[in-house]
Design goal:
By secondary structure, the chain is α/β, with parallel strands linked by helices. It has helices spanning 27-33, 45-48, 51-62, 79-91, 103-115, 195-214, 220-242, 247-263, 270-282, 286-301, 306-315, 322-336, 353-362, 375-387; strands at 9-11, 16-19, 39-42, 68-70, 96-101, 143-147, 159-164, 169-174, 182-185, 389-394, 398-403. The structure holds nicotinamide-adenine-dinucleotide.
Length: 405
């Protein structure tokens, strides 16, 4: 058993991160050090009723910081949530945001802080071309991020993922200064995450690391971080799933989640190109969609991944090497975590294939999938994931239709 003190540290990469159990007690001091005296506390409605929120608010009060809670955040937050939050922020005379929660609350909180001093509407800052330069940097309020799930890594990211209800798409709002000024990664806050959500969020962290590693492009730093993130997930996600009170497993998974988000600066791929529109249409949990899609997308990308999977299987110390070793590990992990085998089990319908495929190929993550994404192929991939069949291209020789067991 690792000594708890050795799980505590201060890091400044890619932003200031205070890791360790109990570090939520430093929230007031961090706000003050960041020049925040009246934070807007952004969380979601479910979390707002939990003791971990009362405890965090207590730490702010103890530091003499006035605050107000804004919790009208949907899972997969929508633009109206952000706009409502900006109104509350301005009316309340706030000077910063504490974003507290899973990716939904973190993304909403970051977007509220970003928009608090802008005059343009939210979609003007979608991550397209140099739209981000439209923002007035002086109008971006500081954010302190406190993740309560270990998956999205939004706490160390420069985007907010916000759903556009009109177009049923998830849009990325990007600015370098959306990145929170400081992060408290306190594993004790994630102890109450139920096993199914632990599994789904942990698989999100894995999806980020895996897709970043598989993305083409020259970025050895991201590759290295992604590989270590996957090693952490392999070792610790099953432990956190089985015993949510295991602080070491919770710590390692929080770190794996931040690593995934650092790594995906290199790019993501078809897991996300598909999960974004499916999530926007159905409101399904992002990490769960990524987990279900992962084996199908991996099989789809196989022709481009031989060498990378050889190296990865060795780095992870898998019993079977190469692509098949990685595919087997992911199948076994999904089985162990009781991840559903098909999108149909999540209520996703084959009839949406045209809509989803059209949106997937123009998703910002599509361009870094290792195999170019064409609409017809993505449509077929989506149907495979709905029905539970995957076409494995075995070295280009035989093509076998399989159902995952
Ligand atoms: P979430 O934030 O939607 O939370 C899911 C549920 O878990 C909610 O009901 C919430 O109340 C509950 N919850 C959160 N913390 C808890 C805790 N400690 N104990 C008990 N329950 C808890 O889920 P998520 O997976 O963390 O985030 C998903 C969102 O993040 C999606 O909107 C997705 O698009 C976004 N995302 C953003 C990025 C990014 O880089 N910004 C990356 C990936 C995903």
């Amino acid at each position: 058993m690792t000594d708890k003190n050795s799980l505590t540290a201060n890091w400044n990469y890619p932003t200031a991160i205070r890791v360790g159990p109990g570090r939520i007690a430093e929230l007031g001091a961090i706000c003050k050090a960041s020049g925040i005296s009246r934070p807007l506390f952004v969380t979601d409605a479910g979390l707002a009723k939990m003791p971990i929120v009362a405890d965090a608010l207590g730490h702010l009060a103890k530091a003499g910081l006035g605050t107000q809670v804004f919790s009208s955040i949907k899972p997969n937050p929508v633009a109206a949530n952000v706009e409502d939050g900006v109104t509350v922020y301005r009316k309340g005379g706030h000077d910063g945001v504490v974003a507290f929660g899973g990716g939904s609350a973190l993304d909403a909180g970051k977007a509220i802080a970003f928009l608090s001093g802008q005059t343009r509407p939210i979609w003007d800052f979608e991550d397209v071309g140099d739209n981000w330069t439209r923002a007035d940097p002086n109008g971006i309020a500081p954010t302190i991020a406190v993740p309560t799930t270990a998956g999205t890594g939004s706490e160390v990211g420069r985007v907010s993922v916000i759903t556009d209800e009109d177009t049923h798409t998830k849009r990325l709002i990007f600015h370098p200064r959306i990145m929170p000024m400081a992060v408290i990664a306190d594993p004790a806050l994630t102890v109450g995450v139920p096993p199914a959500l632990t599994a789904a969020t942990g698989m999100d962290a894995l999806a980020h690391c895996l897709e970043a590693y598989c993305a083409p492009g020259f970025h050895p730093m991201a590759d290295g971080i992604a590989v270590e993130g996957m090693r952490l997930v392999r070792q610790w996600l099953p432990v956190a799933y089985r015993d949510g009170t295991d602080i070491e497993a919770r710590t390692r998974m929080l770190v794996a989640a931040t690593m995934g988000a650092v790594a995906f600066q290199k790019g993501l791929g078809a897991i996300h190109s598909l999960s974004h529109p499916i999530g926007a249409v159905y409101g399904t949990h992002h990490g769960l969609l990524n987990a279900v899609l992962m084996p199908y997308v991996l099989a789809f990308n196989r022709p481009a991944l031989t060498q990378k999977m050889d190296l990865l299987s060795q780095a992870l110390g898998l019993p079977a090497l190469g692509f098949d070793g990685i595919a087997r590990w992911i199948d076994e992990l999904c089985h162990e975590l009781a991840i559903p085998k098909t999108l149909a089990e999540l209520g996703v319908e084959e009839g949406k294939a045209d809509l989803i495929a059209r949106a997937a190929v123009v998703d910002p993550t599509a361009s870094t999938n290792p195999v170019p994404l064409e609409e017809a192929a993505v449509r077929a991939l989506f149907i495979q994931a709905v029905q539970g069949t995957a076409i494995l291209n075995r070295g280009g020789k035989t093509r076998t239709s399989v159902t995952r067991s």
